[in-house]
Specification:
By secondary structure, this protein is an alpha/beta fold. 29% of the residues lie in helices and 21% in strands. It has six helices and ten strands, in the order βββαββαβαβββαβαα. The chain has helices at 30-38, 75-86, 104-113, 140-148, 168-174, 187-198; strands at 3-8, 24-25, 28-29, 44-49, 64-68, 91-96, 119-124, 127-128, 132-136, 163-166. Strand 2 and strand 3 (28-29) form a beta hairpin. Helix 2 packs across helix 4. The longest helix is centred in the middle third of the chain and has 12 residues, at 75-86.
Length: 206
């Protein structure tokens, strides 16, 4: 199945106070780390940024396309829409740029399941992970009116399209500690991520 990989890098990083994609965890900045993990999963790599946002220089990625939000200021839903519009693939893996511990095996599992659905998303209890999910282009017909009506919660999309939730037992076959969904919003998160990198996380991370 042909899949494109879309990275949402346009978050405002309000709690951190500066653009977190430049921060390093291990030997790479956050954006480069996410690219390195996902680029082998898809036929193209798309980075969605806010208008006039700068990003770190990306190394060794020939299939990269950087696009700015079609609907500025519309949060993650606007970024998802922009990525899907720019993509040349029907199915698209979408992740956030601040997830340093993505699990390659879990992502491949989600991609394999996506052929029968419009949206494949992990769920842990009542929490879902819409920025670690596979979206089909069918979602565009639902997302655009949501944006125009300023209904910007991605969770509202789940009941409008054919959705498959990846449940805890499935997740833990690949990622028993749920580190895939660890994202960086604060200095505390950043410090914890750097500490985790130095230890054995027992996770098939990229």
């Amino acid at each position: 199945m042909e899949v494109s990989c879309i990275i949402l890098a346009g978050g405002k990083s309000l709690r951190l106070g500066y653009d977190k994609v430049f921060e390093t965890v291990g030997e790479q900045n956050l954006l480069q780390q996410v690219i390195s993990c996902t680029e082998t999963l898809g036929s193209e790599m798309i980075i969605v940024t806010a208008n006039e946002q700068t990003i770190p220089e990306i190394r060794d990625c020939s299939k990269l396309n950087v696009v700015a939000d079609v609907y500025p200021g519309k949060g993650p839903l606007g970024g998802i829409y922009t990525g899907l519009v720019a993509s040349t693939s029907f199915y698209n893996l979408i992740v956030a740029s601040d997830m340093p511990f993505l699990n390659h095996s879990l992502l491949r599992y989600m991609i394999r399941l996506s052929a029968d659905f419009d949206l494949v998303v992990p769920r842990v209890g009542s929490l879902v992970e819409p920025l670690h999910a596979v979206y089909s282009k069918n979602c565009l017909t639902q997302i655009e009116p949501m944006i125009k009506q300023d209904r910007l919660s991605v969770n509202q999309l789940f009941r409008l399209v054919k959705t498959r939730c990846i449940e805890v037992k499935e997740i833990e076959k690949f990622d028993p500690y749920h580190l895939s969904f660890f994202n960086i919003n604060t200095e505390t998160d950043l410090a914890r991520a750097r500490k985790l990198v130095k230890g054995d996380m027992s996770n098939d991370k990229c």
